[in-house]
Amino acid sequence: MAGEPQADCLFCKIVAREVPATVVRETETTLAFRDINPQAPTHVLVIPKAHYPDAASLAAGAPELAADVLREAGAVAVEEKTAGSGYRVVFNTGSGAGQTVFHAHAHVLAGRGLEWPPG
Ligand code: 5GP
Ligand code: ZN
Q1: For ligand 1, is residue 7 a contact (CB within 6 Å)?
Q2: pLDDT recorded at residue 35
Q3: CB 17 within 8 A of CB 81
Q4: Domain boundaries in the chain?
């Protein structure tokens, strides 16, 4: 069923605290933790606790939860004191675009120059 935990999903395991992570924010519906392989001085992943494979399926299946993820991305940027200098929120979607974990997640990137267009 949509949103149910998946046994083979790394981020469901992080939600269940079966895999450790450096958590920076938590709400009833979301978790934010530092990326294990940071691409910028601030690199935090914001995920819904419920399992959806990507951002579009999250928005289609649980629009309020998608909004929770976006709101939390903004809250992370404020907490990391990056909201003023700017930050980027990225949802890689599909392996061709670099998605490696198929549990929806927002990358919050900041703290260095962010080129446009991104690579
Ligand atoms: P994607 O490539 O799917 O857009 O993003 C997945 C992200 O998860 C990558 O940036 C990767 O570094 C991060 N990641 C992979 N495994 C772990 C882990 O075990 N812990 C944490 N904190 N991040 C992870
Ligand atoms: Zn999952």
Answers
A1: no
A2: 98
A3: no
A4: 10-110
The yes/no answer on whether domain 10-110 falls in CATH 3.30.428.10 is yes
This prediction's pTM:
0.98
Q: Is the CB of 36 under 6 A from ligand 1?
A: yes
Per-residue model confidence as pLDDT tens digits over 40-67: 999 999 999 999 999 999 999 999 999 9
Cβ(30)–Cβ(47) under 8 Å? yes
The residue whose CB lies within 8 Å of the most ligand 1 atoms, and thus the one to mutate among 14, 19, 37, 93, is 37
Strands (E), the chain: 23-26, 30-34, 42-48, 88-90, 106-110
By CB atoms closer than 10 A (0-12, 13-18, 19+), residue 41 is: exposed
Residue 83, classed as helix, strand or coil, is coil
